[in-house]
Amino acid sequence: MKVTLKEWNAVATWHWDMPEDEVCGICRVQFDGTCPTCKFPGDECALLIGKCGHSFHMHCLMTWIRQDSSKGLCPMCRQKFEWVQEE
Questions:
Q1: Which N-terminal residues, if any, form the signal peptide (predicted)?
Q2: Distance (Å, rounded) from C-alpha 31 to C-alpha 37?
Q3: Does residue 60 lie in a domain region?
Q4: What is the DSSP string of the chain?
């Protein structure tokens, strides 16, 4: 029996390389989901990982940092927030 493929539809998924139970420290949404600002997961909303080890959606952290009360500190541990630069 010979089978000829006439059409093929691919389906793909993606996820951040983070533990599944890891959530944004600000909006409390899993990283594979969307932050409150985005419509779709990964919508130019990268993950920012601080040197302190806490992770946030980029939009959530930028909103936090813009507040005067944040004083540039991590919302979780209150250390000066500096993110890890990936090479």
A1: none
A2: 13
A3: yes
A4: ----------------SS-TT-B-TTT--BTTS--TT-SSTTSS--EEEBTTS-EEEHHHHHHHHHSGGGTTB-TTT-SBP-BPPP-
**Tokens at 87, concatenated:** 């090479």
The CATH number linked to 50 is 3.30.40.10
Global confidence as pTM: 0.71
**Which residues have CB under 8 Å from 81's CB, separation 6+?**
50, 52, 61, 65, 72, 73, 74
Taking the CA atoms of residue 54, residue 59, residue 61 and residue 67 in that order, the dihedral angle to the nearest 10 degrees is: -170
Domain assignment of residue 71, yes or no: yes
Q: Which domain holds residue 72?
A: 18-86
Q: Which tokens go with 35?
A: 């932050």
pLDDT at 87 over 60: no
